[in-house]
């Protein structure tokens, strides 16, 4: 028996091995495994697979075949066995262990380690779950803002259209009110015409008989006298009516001094005077003249049509629109070929139940109509139309679709590398495997490139540095082609230039620096356009910015520190472009020179001092927080950058390379076997396929 337990195999359920037997079980195998007469087994006892599995089923404590307690575990088969089972053919030659040896070897630590691993995984999954929830909330908030923006734009676009629609509705209502007023007047005039026609027909018939039979018999003369008497009665009745009208008109004159009322009253006075001068035979014509004196064209068909209207007479108000909507009215207008039919089809609005003629009411309606609609001008609304640019809409849809991207953070982290310049050339560091790779070297040998290296797209740019007596040049390295090109820096004075550079992530690289010929030389800010390759001077810096560290944040260049300078932070607004820098933080309060500095692209600047102290400065609050110090000596300027919440310090063979967890606040030395001198040499983050 061997006491070399392999717990990795024990804990792995996939390691369970099935053993098949080639022999037949005899009737005497019911517990007696000492005798076996099967010649094909060579005298050995073999059990079937189902019998073997009975060892570990139902949490049994003893072997069902040998009636002995389980004392061993077969590491090859992952089965618990009794002392007799381990010598049988299925387990012969296997490795076994027992509880005593397991306890003496303190192998129980394996379970503790497993629990620690599971606990760590649970904490990681908990963090992942919270991250997913936060990401979902972030997506919801993004599209909520987008939806709100679209709703606001929709209302802004619809507002003038809605205003004109409401104006049109009010105009339609006003026109309907006027149509109803005219309709009511015409209806009452029609009633008056019908009443006068009945009276005139009776008078005309009797008068004609009297004129044609003057010489007839006495009976005809009596009839003529009766007719004359009737004419006199009618004239008396007409006089009474006329006097009544005059009284009404006189009352109107006293109540209202407006010119429109006076003119209307004069019309009716003239009519009454004319009627009093006419003889009996012209009574019918007088009635017709009274009707024609009102300046309204009454069509016989319209009068006949209006006479049949029996719906209640109501003034059209906005409330009627709720019963008969504007859309229904418009539909009726478009489907009707004449206003007569339109009025007939909408008797709920225009109907009038008046069956008796009332002069006072008629005069009042005519007067009100003249006042209300004398100067009314129904203007057409503004003929607005919204035109959409389908090409821009398509482009906008494409932009919205591309505004978000689902990415695997792990895959992104694996594609991010650290590009570093060293004394021996150019290199790239892979954080996922802590390995360095050599690249093609720059065609220009230069020193002091710290903070002068920046990555934009597929290119790495290096500006300035010390290069003997040559004119300053900048170099560009293609990550895809693995090739360097160099170009002279024009319009920038000085031979050896010490630059600190940063990029806005688009087309511009900003250079802050001075000449290395003298530490007292003035500093400046330049902009380099990567497309036109032109340098443009933006500002002079009053404070000398030797070996400063710069980064770009919200359209501002932040300039930190410099050799022999106060620990201050200055800013320059690239949008305002005033030509002057401003002091952002006068003194961050550090006691020794800065060794390295980097920015997390969010809000914090991480700063390492020569005395190993490590700080974090918030740009939003300007607060400084001291973090865990670096336990290793780094007394010269080196590069730092952040990838996926891990800060990397590239010290090279002189000080070593380190990583710092932003969340754990712990430093760790990298075992990357870096043998290159990287003091005062720059580095940046690149993305490689």
UniProtKB/TrEMBL annotation:
Pfam family, one: zf-B_box
Keywords of this entry: Metal-binding, Zinc, Zinc-finger
Ranges of biased composition (kind: Low complexity): 23-43, 50-62, 261-295
Region listing for Disordered, in residue ranges: 1-62, 197-295
Presence of the UniProt keyword Zinc-finger in the record: yes
Biased composition regions of type Basic and acidic residues, renumbered to the chain: 9-21, 229-240
Entry annotated with the keyword Cell cycle: no
Start and end residues of each B box-type domain: 58-99
UniProt GO molecular function: zinc ion binding
InterPro entries reported for this sequence: Kelch-typ_b-propeller, Znf_B-box
Name the record gives this protein: B box-type domain-containing protein
């Amino acid at each position: 028996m061997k006491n070399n337990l392999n717990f990795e195999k024990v804990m792995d359920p996939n390691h369970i091995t099935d053993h098949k037997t080639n022999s037949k079980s005899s009737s005497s195998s019911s517990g007696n495994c000492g005798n076996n007469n099967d010649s094909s087994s060579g005298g050995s006892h073999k059990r079937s697979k189902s019998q073997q599995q009975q060892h570990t089923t139902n949490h049994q404590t003893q072997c069902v075949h040998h009636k002995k307690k389980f004392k061993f575990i077969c590491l090859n088969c992952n089965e618990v066995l009794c002392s007799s089972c381990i010598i049988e053919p299925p387990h012969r030659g296997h490795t076994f262990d027992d509880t005593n040896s397991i306890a003496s070897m303190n192998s129980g630590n394996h379970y503790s380690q497993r629990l620690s691993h599971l606990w760590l995984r649970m904490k990681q999954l908990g963090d992942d779950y919270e991250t997913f929830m936060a990401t979902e909330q972030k997506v919801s908030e993004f599209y909520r803002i987008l939806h709100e923006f679209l709703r606001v734009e929709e209302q802004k676009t619809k507002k003038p259209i809605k205003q004109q629609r409401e104006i049109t509705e009010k105009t339609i209502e006003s026109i309907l009110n006027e149509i109803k007023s005219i309709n009511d007047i015409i209806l009452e005039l029609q009633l008056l015409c019908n009443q006068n026609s009945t009276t005139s027909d009776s008078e005309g018939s009797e008068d004609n008989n009297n004129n044609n039979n003057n010489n007839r018999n006495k009976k005809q003369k009596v009839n003529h006298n009766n007719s004359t008497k009737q004419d006199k009665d009618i004239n008396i009745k007409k006089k009474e009516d006329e006097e009544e009208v005059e009284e009404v008109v006189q009352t109107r004159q006293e109540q209202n001094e407006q010119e429109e009322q006076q003119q209307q009253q004069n019309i009716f006075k003239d009519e009454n005077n004319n009627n009093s001068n006419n003889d009996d035979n012209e009574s019918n014509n007088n009635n017709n003249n009274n009707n024609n004196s009102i300046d309204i064209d009454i069509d016989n068909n319209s009068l006949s049509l209006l006479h049949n209207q029996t719906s209640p007479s109501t003034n059209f108000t906005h409330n009627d629109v709720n019963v008969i909507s504007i859309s229904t009215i418009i539909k009726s207008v478009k489907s009707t070929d004449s206003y007569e039919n339109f009025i007939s089809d909408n008797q709920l609005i225009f109907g009038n139940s008046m069956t008796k003629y009332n002069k006072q009411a008629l005069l009042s309606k005519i007067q009100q109509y003249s006042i209300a609609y004398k100067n009314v001008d129904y203007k057409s609304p503004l003929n607005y139309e919204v035109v959409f640019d389908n090409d821009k809409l398509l482009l906008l849809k494409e932009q919205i679709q591309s505004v978000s991207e689902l990415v695997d953070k792990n895959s992104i982290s694996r594609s991010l590398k650290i590009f570093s310049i060293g004394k021996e050339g150019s290199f790239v560091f892979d954080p996922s495997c802590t390995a360095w790779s050599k690249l093609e070297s720059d065609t220009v040998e230069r020193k002091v490139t710290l903070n002068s290296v920046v990555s934009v797209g597929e290119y790495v740019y290096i500006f300035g540095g010390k290069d003997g007596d040559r004119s300053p040049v900048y170099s560009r390295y293609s990550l895809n082609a693995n090739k360097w090109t160099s170009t002279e820096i024009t319009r920038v004075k000085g031979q050896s230039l010490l630059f600190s550079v940063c990029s806005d992530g688009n087309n511009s690289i900003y250079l802050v620096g001075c000449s290395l010929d003298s530490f007292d030389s003035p500093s400046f800010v330049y902009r380099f356009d990567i497309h036109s390759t032109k340098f443009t001077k933006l500002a002079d810096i009053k404070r000398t910015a030797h070996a400063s560290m710069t980064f770009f944040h919200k359209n501002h260049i932040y300039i930190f520190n410099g050799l022999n300078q106060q620990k201050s932070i200055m800013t320059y607004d690239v949008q305002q472009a005033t030509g002057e820098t401003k002091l952002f933080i006068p003194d961050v309060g550090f006691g020794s020179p800065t060794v390295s500095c980097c920015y997390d692209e969010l809000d914090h600047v991480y700063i390492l001092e020569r005395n190993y102290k490590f700080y974090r400065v918030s740009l939003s609050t300007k607060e400084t927080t001291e973090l865990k110090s670096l336990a290793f000596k780094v007394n010269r300027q080196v590069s730092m950058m952040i990838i996926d919440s891990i800060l990397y310090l590239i010290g090279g063979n002189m000080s070593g390379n380190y990583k710092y967890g932003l969340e754990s606040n712990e430093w760790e030395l990298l075992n990357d076997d870096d043998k290159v001198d990287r003091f005062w040499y720059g580095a940046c983050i690149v993305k490689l396929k």
